[in-house]
Amino acid sequence: MRILPDIFTRRHTRLQHKAWLTKQFKQYAEGDLVEAHQRSAEARAEHRHLVAWWPIDETRQSSAQELALNGMLTSLTHSRPDNYMAACASSTKTDVTYALLIERLGKASCSCTDFLKNGRACKHLRALQLLLDALVIAGHERPFLFPATRLEALQIEQGIDLDSTAGNPYLDLPALQAIGADNTVLGDGLGDGVSGFNSDGTLEEVEGDEEDNGSKEDYTGQDSGLVTAAAIVHTPQVNQQAAIEQQMHSKLYMELCPLLPRLQGIDNLLSDVTSLPSDPTQLNEFYDIAQSITQHISAI
Q1: Higher pLDDT residue, 256 or 104?
Q2: Is the pLDDT of residue 180 over 60?
Q3: Do residues 73 and 64 touch, judged by C-beta distance below 8 A?
Q4: How many CB atoms lie within 10 A of CB 203?
Q5: What percent of the chain is predicted at pLDDT more than 70?
Q6: Is residue 119 predicted with pLDDT exceeding 50?
Q7: What is the pLDDT, as a whole number, of residue 42?
Q8: First to last CA, the chain
Q9: CA angle, 217 as apex, 212 and 220 as ends, to 5°?
C-alpha cells in the first residue's frame, strides 16, 4: 500500500519542479517553456526547409541593379533546359563568389548568408533575375515563375498547383534599361568561399570556376553575365511596346498554366451531363467568358 503514496509523491515533486522552472525562466523564454521549445523546433524545421520567394524589396532590388551594372555576375550556364546557374562575386568581400540557381518553375537558391538565413530572394538572385528577364524580353527564353510569398514557394516545392499566378511576372524594365545604358527605350527610369552546384542542383564546394564541358549552354563566355543582358536590352528592336507586349505574354502564360488542367476537367464533366443545373447562372457566365476569350483569340 506504500507504493501509491510514493508514486503520488514523486509526481507531485515533478509538477512542483516544472512549475518552479516555468516561473524562473518564463521571462527569458517569452512565455511557457513548452511553447518556447515548440517555437524553437518549428524555427529549426523552417530553417532546414529553405525556399526562395520574391517579395517587393526596394533595397535588395537596388543592390541587384548595382551588381548587374558592375558586372558581378559571371558564368551563366544551364545543364538542364529549365535550370540556370551563375556565379556572383561578393560586393563586400574579396575572393568570395556565390553560386546561384534559378529554375523556370519557381525554385531558386543562393549560397550567400542572406539567403541561407532568410530564404527570400537576395540581391544576388535578383541580379540573375534581371538577366533572365532580359532573355525573356528578347524572346530567347520562356517566362520564369517567381513566387511572391513563402506559402506560394512552399506549394511549388511540394508540387501543388497554385490557384492563381504564384509568380510575379513583372519585369523590372527600368533596371534592365539601366544595365543597357539606354535612355531611349523606357524613359529616365533607371556569404563565403567559391561554391557551385551539382547536376542535381545541390551545392558543392569547388576549386574554381566550372569549365564548360560542352553539355552546357554558356551565354557569357569569359565576360560578365550581364553583358548579354545589356546587349539585348540595348538592341533597337527591344523598344517600349515590345517590352510591354512581352509583359502581357508573361502574365497570360502564368495565368494559363494552372488553369488548363481545370478547364480540361470542366470539359470532361460537361461531356457527361445531359441537362443544366437548376440555377445555371454561373454556367452561363462561364459560357459568356469562354465566348469572349474565343473572340479575342480569333481577332489576334
Answers
A1: 104
A2: no
A3: no
A4: 15
A5: 58
A6: yes
A7: 62
A8: 92
A9: 80
Question: Would the pLDDT of 79 be above 60?
Answer: yes
Q: Stretch 178-195: mean pLDDT, rounded?
A: 41
Place of cell 524580353: 137
pLDDT at 46: 53
Cα–Cα distance for residue pair 174/139, rounded to 1 Å: 18
Dist CA 243 CA 227 (whole Å): 19
Instruction: Provide the phi-psi class of 177: left if phi over 0, else alpha when psi is between -120 and 50, else beta.
Output: alpha
Exposure string of 254-277, with b = 16+ CB inside 10 Å and e = fewer, is beebeeeeeeeeeeeeeeeeeeee
Cα separations (Å) of 95 from 102, 115, 168, 206?
A: 23, 19, 33, 13
User: Could you tell me the three cell numbers for 193?
Assistant: 568561399
**Average pLDDT of the segment spanning 37-61:** 73
Q: Find which of 99-108, 135-144, 228-237 is predicted with most confidence, using mean pLDDT.
A: 99-108
